[in-house]
Design goal:
Helix 2 (19-39) packs antiparallel against helix 3 (43-64), helix 2 packs antiparallel against helix 9 and helix 6 (99-113) packs across helix 9. The chain is mostly helical. The relative contact order is 0.15. The longest helix is centred in the C-terminal third of the chain and has 23 residues, at 152-174. The protein is built from 9 helices and no strands. It has a single domain (17-174), classed as Four Helix Bundle (Hemerythrin (Met), subunit A), CATH 1.20.120.
């Protein structure tokens, strides 16, 4: 059998994972890139990678509720895919997560920062820490004429909370 056919057969027989797992893996990769940027003093790229990691973790949470989705092609249309998990704004993505998972996120984040959180106070934290839309704000930072700030520690803590919870949830669902 030629090598191409063997490769195609292996791929065809490989157990597919739902899209939530791939998005989670990508989020972890961007978080690792953030850590490399931090070590090298590359702060704007670290912020951008952290922001994108948070965005992908939120999208993975949304997709973890739809384990019948293996790729964006499994949606009826790109418009439907965008409705389910599209966008960049943290609160809008957070709002697409089911209420049970939202509460878990709020509880874990709240314990990490020492505050009791509900959806409203979480939204206020995003505003206070300049974290409403960090990926969009920071990916073209050099084009901005105004000074942009962000509470990096808050966003990093939020990322850790999401990553820890999602790793546990996806592990439980894969069993």
């Amino acid at each position: 059998m030629e090598l191409q056919k063997i490769a195609e057969e292996l791929i065809a027989n490989q157990k597919k994972k739902p899209l939530a797992y791939d998005v989670f893996s990508m989020a972890k990769s961007f978080n690792e890139a953030k850590q490399i940027n931090e070590k090298n003093g590359l702060i704007p790229p670290a912020i951008m990678n952290l922001a994108f990691s948070v965005e992908l973790l939120l999208k993975s949470f949304i997709l973890s509720e739809r384990l019948d989705i293996y790729s964006s092609n499994d949606f009826e249309s790109p418009k439907q895919a965008n409705k389910v998990y599209g966008g960049h704004r943290i609160y809008e993505l957070f709002d697409k997560i089911n209420s049970n998972n939202k509460q878990k996120i709020l509880d874990v984040l709240g314990s990490k920062i020492g505050k009791s959180l509900d959806s409203s106070s979480f939204n206020m934290l995003l505003v206070e820490n300049n974290c409403e839309d960090p990926f969009v704000d920071w990916r073209y930072i050099f084009e901005n004429e105004e000074v942009i700030t962000i509470n990096y520690d808050f966003l990093s803590t939020f990322c850790d909370a999401l990553g820890d919870l999602l790793a546990k949830e996806l592990t439980e669902k894969s069993m």
